[in-house]
Amino acid sequence: MESPLSNPYSSPVANLFGSATSSAAEAVSPSTIAQLAGTKPWVRFMSVIFWLVGLFLVLGSCLYALLAVSGTFNNPEFTSNPAISGNPMLSKNPAILTGLLIGTSVYLGVFAFLTIYPALKLWKYANCIARLMASRSIADLDAALTEQRRYWKFHGIMTLIGICMVLIGIIAFFALIFTAIGSGMKFPR
After folding, report:
1. How far from each other are the two terminal CA atoms of the chain, in whole angstroms?
2. How much is the pLDDT for 39?
3. Predicted structure pTM score
């Protein structure tokens, strides 16, 4: 059967959705748009939550970096503090605490990126849904699904990395146990 668009002698087809850029055959069904429109507020909400968490992580990272470079931990008043002077590792070498703060700053910065990237993808996804609701075009549906795919791909990759890290941790744990047993270390009973 021929498509009405390929037959020049067929009766005209009206575009019921009012979009001047796509024909009726290229319009997204109202039920599909309704389903995506129902998810849009929740997508936007989760994006805002991710943005807020990412912002707090960036602020925390900056705070730790500022503390590390401020030189506060080399101050004699700090090293003579009873809580610090009671810890031989910190009282004899305040650079260790500075290193810990720099490491924490980098750690928080990495987690800020890992939070902000999905926030950006969800924000773009919600924007694409809004454009789709207005235009009802296949191109906007494709754009929305592309942003959603990128969001889930990111989480899939992070899950695979997490599984690999757990497996490496388990292998390292048993390797340390067998190394300790092989070296003749006695375990408490």
Report:
1. 83
2. 94
3. 0.69
CB-CB neighbours of 121 under 10 Å: 23
Return the amino acid letter for 16.
L
Could you give the CA distance from residue 126 to residue 49 in angstroms, rounded to a whole number? 14
Q: Beta strands of 38-188 (E only): which ranges?
A: none
Say which residue the tokens 């791909």 belong to. Answer: 153
Tokens 């190394």 appear where?
Answer: 179
Say which residues have a Cβ less than 8 Å from residue 138's Cβ, sequence separation at least 6.
Answer: 22, 26, 27, 28
Question: Is 20's pLDDT higher than 70?
Answer: no
SS3 27: strand
| Token reading at 153 | 């791909």
Describe the crossing of helices 138-182 and 95-135 by its angle, rounded to 10 degrees: 150
Q: Is 137 helix (H, G, I), strand (E, B) or coil?
A: strand
8-state DSSP, 5: T
pLDDT at 33 over 70: yes
- Residue 94 contacts residue 74 (beta carbons within 8 Å): yes
d(CA 139, CA 34): 17
pLDDT band at 186 (very low <50, low <70, confident <90, very high): confident
